Structure formats: C-alpha cells, structure tokens
Amino acid sequence: MTATIVSERVNRDNTVQQVTSEYLCEHETDIHTPFGITKVICTDSDIDALVVGRLYADGLISSADDAVISISPDRKRADVSLPCIRKNEPYIMERVVPESGTVFMLADMFGRDSGLHRSTRSTHRCMLLHSGEVRSFDDISRHNAVDKAVGYALMNRFDMSACIMFSSGRVPSDMAQKVIAAHIPVLVSKADPTAQAVETAKKYGLTLICRAWPDSYEVFS
Questions:
Q1: Neighbours of 187 (CB within 10 A)
Q2: Which parts of the chain are beta strand (E)?
Q3: 3-state class of 204 per DSSP?
Q4: Pairing of the two strands 133-139 and 164-167
C-alpha cells in the first residue's frame, strides 16, 4: 500500500518546488508464538510466507507442516501453534557454483526493478530462482523479503538445495546464516558482504556472490 504525499524540494539556488510522490505505507503484524510476541514492521503482502520463513530461519520448524498459522483478516496478527519443536539445524552444504549466465540474468531482472520499488524507492527485493522460474518478494526490510521468499518456498515444497537467492541488500553474517539455515546453496546480492559474512559462507559451504551488476560480479569462495 502506498500514500501520496506532497513535500517541498529546496534546490541549491534557493528555489523551492512542490513535489508529489508515492510513499510506502508501513504495515505492522504481531506474530504470537508459544515463546512470546514478535512485532514485525513490513509491507502488507505475503504475510503467511513471512511468518513461515521467520519461523524456519529461527530454527523453530523444519517444514511448513510443523506450524499451524492463523492470520487475522486485517493481517495485523498471526497466531502460531507449534505442536512440536523441530529445530532446523544448519549444516555444511556441498558448494554449488552457478553458471555466469544465470547470475547475469538475475542481475538484469533486478535492474528492471519492481513496480513497488519504482514508485516508492523504499523497498528491498528478494528474488528466488527455482526450476527455471523467478519469484520476487518486496518488503521494507531486506530480512523480511528473504523470510517471504523462504516461506513461499517451504509452503510450495520447493527443493531448497536447488534454489538460488538474489537479494538487494548488504549481506551481514546474520543474513548469510539465515540463507544457510534455509539450506539454499547460493546467495547473490547487488551489494557488499561483511568480512564475517564471507567467513560464515566459507564455513558452511554457501556460495556468496556480491556486487552482482549487469556487467560483472564477485565470487567469495
């Protein structure tokens, strides 16, 4: 959801212009689990996938079937029942190196932008490649966008080991750990990683590709 807002742009020559732009509206969802309440600021789309992906990344479930989730009609509350806790443990993956054409294809697709980001310039985007098809998820937070992609993959029973993820955001170590926990072997980003993210990727066999632009990318192995 967006809102039309008028602002004043002050130029260097001291002229002032009225500017009308679309701005992203924040959506707030409270996730109720047996362990407490987590408040998430996000966009108002794909809330079910966001909840499933967050539970999986936190190691509370090993599949979408491990949780019973009820989302209120206004999507502001998600009640989660966990009949049993099945920890999703990270493990050392077999390293996968995608073909360069695949990486450049994802970079090109990202460069074409999503409608929501184009109109607001306020979202992060996560793309998930599986079986030749790319699905995109937008959110205020890059972590939320990743959770939505992971949750969607779980709900649709994707083979996570056959997925490639593309993120718009910087890659700190907690982002790398989230992708490793999802057992996705390749993470691509248009931005930079931290040194700790590179170390984490090497430890668990995650192929980390950053600075992925239409003309070049860098592989950390």
A1: 26
A2: 2-10, 16-24, 27-33, 36-42, 68-71, 77-81, 124-130, 133-139, 164-167, 186-189, 207-213, 216-220
A3: helix
A4: unpaired
> Between β-strands 164-167 and 124-130, what pairing exists: parallel, antiparallel or unpaired?
antiparallel
Q: What is the pLDDT of residues 105-152, one digit of tens each?
A: 999 998 786 667 666 666 888 999 999 999 999 999 889 999 999 999
- Domains in the chain: boundaries: 27-81, 100-220
Q: pTM of this prediction? A: 0.87
Cα angle, residue 27 at apex, residues 26 and 29 outer, rounded to 5°: 145
Cα–Cα dist 193/171, whole Å: 4
In this structure, CATH architecture of domain 100-220: 3-Layer(aba) Sandwich (3.40)
* Terminal C-alpha separation, the chain: 40
DSSP-derived secondary structure letter, 171: B
**Helices 47-57 and 142-155, packing angle to 10 deg:** 90
CATH class, range 27-81: alpha beta
DSSP three-state, residue 146: helix
Which pair of tokens denotes residue 9?
């742009």
The pLDDT-based confidence of 58 (bands split at 50, 70, 90) is confident
Distances (CA, A) of 142 to 15, 103, 126, 147: 36, 19, 7, 9
